[in-house]
Amino acid sequence: MMGLSRRQFATSLAAAGLGLSPLLRQAMAQAAASPATRNLPRTYSGRTLRIVWGNSPAFISTAEFSKEFTAASGVQLEFSQLPTAERYQKMILDTSTNTNSFDIYIVAYQWKEQVAPFVIDHTGLDKEVAGVPAMNWDDYPQQPLAAYSKLGNKMVTIPIVGDVSFTIWNKAAYRAAGLDPEQGPATWRQLFENGQKLRSGEQYGYNLPAGKTIQTACVWITLFHSFGGQYFDPAGKPLLDSPASIAAFRFMVENLGKISPPGNLTWDFPEMLASLSTAQAAQGYMWAGGVTALYDPSKSKIAQSLGYAPTPEMTLLGGWGVAANAKSRNLDAAKLFLGWLTSPEIVKQIGLLSMPPTRRSALSDPELIARYPFLPSVLKGMEGKVAGYAPIKDSEQVNIQIYDEANAVCSGTKTPEQGAASLQERVTTLLRRRGYIQ
Amino acid sequence: MTLAMRALIRKTVLSLACLAIGVTYLFPYIWMVLTGFRSAADTLAIRFIFTPTLAGFGGVLGDSGFQGHVLNSIVVALTTTGTVLTVAIPAGYALAHLPIRGAAFLVAVLVARMVPGIAILIPIYLAASRLGVLDTHGVLILLYSTFNLPFAIWLLRGFFRDVPGEIREAAIIDGCSDRQVLTMIMMPLTTSGIVATGVFVFIAAWNEFLFALALTNTFAATAPLAMVSFRNEYGVQWTAIGAAALIISTPVVLFAVAMQRFLVRGLTMGSVKG
Amino acid sequence: MSAALAGERRLSLRSVRADGRPLVGPYWFIVPAVVMLSTVYLGPMIYAMMASGTYWVLTEPGSEHLPAGLANYVDVLSSPTFWHAVRVTLLYALTSVVLSLTFGTALALLLDNELFFASMFRSILMIPMVITPAVIAIFWKLLYEQEAGVFNSVLTGLGLGKVAWLSLDRAFMSMVLMDVWQSTPFFMLVILAGLQSVDQNLLDAARVDGANIVQRFRFVILPHLVPYMVIAAAFRGIATMNDFDKIWLLTQGGPGDSTTTITIYTYKIAFSAFDMGRTTAIAWIFVCIVLTATSPLLFHLFKTSRARP
């Protein structure tokens, strides 16, 4: 009676709210016809895979779409659709306590090192299990692949969501302020100047998040790297009180903060997105994966006048991978599913359902581009100058320290210099405690 | 002006005051309910005039997964309430009337309540994992019952203390055992207190979030988890969450409304003389 | 009454039988409670105490065997953020309980009269208590939104200025307000139940003696309600100190540290860093702090909770 997954619940919502039903049906039909699906063996029929999954629209649609896999192979799929923080907790609790109630995890790339000991090496999946399409690792742009999946010689995950940071602007507002609506800002300074021109009356020049959330850390990290900053020196000691760090803090509080709506000290992703979609902020920081929501006229006021480009000077990589639990009792079935899900044809289909692809073939596919015109920009961003989260196991911890300090600086309880010094001290303590440095 | 008229005027004035207070106090709730009836764009634009839509309700109500969550919550909350009352009523009675040294127990129980859930969550998760009871109703019921015991015991003891000890003495002389005193005399006299306690426990069990999140997956997940899953990176599905909030709060309100008659004045208490 | 009968009666109310053996019977009434509480609390707390003496990090296998002695306790106790969180928690609980108690009592007194639709009012005024706290926070975040939030829209509609609800200075009181909104019905219900058992004879006697409404309240009703208020305040206070999802979804503990309570402080250590050593140390320290802070109350309760002789 109660052994129902959330996907049924969520998908009827998706169908009702997002109007994806015809699209979903079409994608599923295409998938059913494709060789990847038709070649699935029924060897593992009857097994059930339990998957830690996301709960945003793209994930929900993909979960529904995956019924085609079940139809062809007989493997049941049970998706636990969770918000971001809960995905992390479930994954860590499940692996480190040896509970192993899940077969597959969705892994944000900053968690990759923490989960590595518990998941398999995905490099040769197509050779290990019959029916898995060719992995085609070359189809992925090099930088995201290295960030999302590579750890030493292992492929710890397979990329499933490819995301980069974008600057979004309201073309109509740009025009009204005398700016060229087709041209995004080339530097942060220019972005700020544009923002100053846009700031008038009820309209703001940016959607700076300043809450104690990862988004605030994302903005800081993008600025930090754009200003020439580096996380660590060759010996592994943090360089987080460098001039670039102070400049990043200063830019957030004195520049971006001044042209953003007040009350943003508790802002997270939803507020950032809402600020853009209600045309409150005429310019803003947004993930490419979030741009889809801005195109929907029933949700977004700027759907018809949306300008976008990768963030100036440097883009931040965001993204997710999928990984199979090494202790899964259905390991081969899990490998089969992962191989199917990340194969080029299927990636294209779920790309149509707004799951942001990482594969080059998908990002250059004409059908996808027709629906999501910003995909070429995503590819360009991925192949340009990119930054990532701290490349250590405790990456998540570093992000927490960053957003704590950024929030303090934006609230005015610390100066940029104090914020940078405090960040440096906290990260150094963390590294010492964990044994990275003495 | 006759006494009856004065009473009527007083009744009307007080009722109007209640209405005014009610509307002001419940404004956030009213707004929350309205959110379920309008599209997300309307919600964010804070328009007060809008076209109502039932799409949100349709989506939420029709979904079997959501129904499953609510069913789980009903099962867990009802069983927890039953368990708590079964254990706490004798305990409260004993601590109020029986010749036992209960002071230390009472204080210990209160101290137990002070332990923050977050701190014992992981040891409990480990134990549940080793015992293989993750994602079951039983583990939630056991935990929720225990968490609510301290409050129930203290509250029920308070209500039992309001019954004069002479009643028990008289019954014992007449040959009743303590069990009979409790079930046949004390409980009927403290029904309103028992019901109030039951309502609180039900609500607490219904709304518990942290342990439900950590200890359940798709099988035993409860209603609050469904609520929070409406909030994802891209925002809040306002229509769905408004509809779901209304749907989820309804059983609890109905439960409490059904129990209302026990909370009404009319129980004769001071009936023991001498 | 004959002396023999009186003697018998006295005996049956004592804790020994007529033949001198102690009465075990009464203790059975509390055995189930003791068993449940020990199982769920004692085990984990002892485990937690042992874990707090190690450097155990959940994500570092084998780290549970690294002894830390008192290092975790020293770490936590010397952290100014921790003490700030303690202050915020205690202040939050105190303010919220006092305000909710006041409003709840007022509402209970109002509802204790002859009213039209009395039971309907009682039911609907209970609603805020019934909504999932996490959902309340999600909605109140939109209510509190500065530029385009509901409260500020209403205020601007009425010609008043916008309020920075979630600013550095105001976020704490906004958090308190949200909790008061949710907790007031709780107090209302407890007090209402307590009001049902006020001794009518006493009230009538007071009325006859010429006491007016305020005096009747102060000298008859209020003393009767005090035990109920104390219990409700104690438990609601403890529950408020354990509040987590409400605050997290509203402000994540920000801006700055203005709404960082112990639970928020612990959450990051427990569920992002998975530092079990420190988490369990915090749990024990916190219990000690709450014990100390409420020790006068506990003393009072201890002394007045002797069962009837």
Question: What is the gist of this entry?
Answer:
Chain A is α+β, with helices and mostly antiparallel strands and about 450 residues long. Helices cover about 50% and strands about 15% of the residues of chain A. Chain B has a two-stranded antiparallel ribbon.
Q: Can you put this structure into words, describing what you see?
A:
The complex is a heterotrimer of chains A (438), B (274) and C (309). Chain A is an alpha+beta fold and 438 residues long. In chain A, 48% of the residues lie in helices and 13% in strands. In chain A, the strands form three sheets. In chain A, strands 3, 6, 7, 8, 9 and 10 form a six-stranded mixed beta sheet that branches. In chain A, a hairpin with a 2-residue loop joins strand 4 (150-151) and strand 5 (154-155). In chain A, helix 2 (21-33) packs antiparallel against helix 17 (344-352) and helix 21 (395-411) packs antiparallel against helix 22 (416-434). Chain A is globular and about 60 Å long. The model of chain A is unreliable at 1-20 (pLDDT under 50). Chain B has two domains: 9-44; 64-267, MetI-like (MetI-like fold, Orthogonal Bundle). With 274 residues, chain B is an all-alpha fold. Chain B has helices at 3-25, 27-35, 40-45, 55-62, 64-97, 103-114, 117-131, 137-161, 165-173, 178-189, 191-207, 210-215, 223-228, 238-258; strands at 231-232, 235-236. Chain B has a two-stranded antiparallel ribbon. Mean pLDDT of chain B is 82; it is low at 264-274. Chain B is flat, with a radius of gyration of 23 Å. Chain C is mostly helical and 309 residues long. Chain C contains 14 helices and no strands. In chain C, helix 3 packs across helix 14 and helix 7 (133-144) runs parallel beside helix 12. Chain C is globular. In chain C, 45% of the residues are buried.
